[in-house]
Amino acid sequence: MRNTITFSHWMPTLRRAAPAGGFGSSQLKAVLFPSLGILTFLLLWAQGAALVNTSLGQMPGPLQVYEQAGNLWAEHRAEQARAEEFYQRLDEMNARRLEQDPDFVPRERRYSGRTTFIDQVQTSLVTVMTGFVIASLVAIPLGILIGLSSNLYRAVNPIIQVLKPISPLAWLPLITLVVSAVYVSDNPMFSRSFLVSVFTVALCSLWPTLINTAVGVGNTSKDLLNVSRVLQLNWVTHVRRIVLPGAVPMIFTGLRLSLGIGWMVLIAAEMLAQNPGLGKFVWDEFQNGSSASLSRIMVAVLVIGLIGFALDRTMLVLQRLLSWDKSAVLR
């Protein structure tokens, strides 16, 4: 189906949205220019998609992708309804058995329905945040120590520079083997696939935070360091009162970079290792090869981008809340 989004469709809407005084206010510019960029992108997408034919059919445009997003949401709601019916029937069955036999111990059974697109999104979010938190807990304290000691920096820096550029695709087989060898349990708390994805994200995303924290701590003002010496602050107070406030912008820059890298690494790891998540969804749809696969993959791609954007904006808000310099321009 040919897409019908044209310039004439959205231009009247922009005119109605414009105030009588014209496009002068900063608030209007903040809305107008991003809207123009998005509308231009959608227009180019709609026109360009109509020209591309693949082995699975025509490249989907914005309208087809929007319709497919609605279908994926409807599938999730239908699966939720089936799960609720299952647990309701299970409760009723256990209640009848208890009436017949007071000693009966109700069995706990989990609904084993189909994993939906929304389930995969939730799995990826939990995985990336777990890996990111682990990476931050390692990178920030280590970065502070490296930034405070030039000798420790000289000792650790070669290792960092060697490990930092290693691709997550190279780490993945090693992490998979290590987790399989070390994490052996008859009643595991976490699945191995979850741990493999978490450690892959953590290992690949900790470097920006580590390096930026070390640089931020190392660039602490000499005047502030002299104040700390004069006041004879102990190590903890020196770090908390003198070092960290000045290093916060660099630490958050590293955290934002780490979170973005972690999100990209996770999708690649899920695709390669077939671990649950958005990456697996994309790969499964690619292998499925149905007429709707292209649209479903496009929905996943857009959701991956939107989540990455939302994660970055969340970190930016946290930086604004925690930074002592409220007048600093953050982007």
UniProtKB/TrEMBL annotation:
Location within or outside the cell: Cell membrane
Highest taxon of source: Bacteria
Keywords: Cell membrane, Membrane, Transmembrane, Transmembrane helix, Transport
GO-annotated cellular components: plasma membrane
Topology versus the membrane: Multi-pass membrane protein
Transmembrane stretches, start-end: 125-148, 169-185, 197-221, 242-273, 293-311
Domain ABC transmembrane type-1: 121-315
GO biological process: transmembrane transport
InterPro entries (UniProt xref): MetI-like, MetI-like_sf
Protein family (similarity comment): Belongs to the binding-protein-dependent transport system permease family.
Name under which the protein is recorded: Nitrate/nitrite transport system permease protein
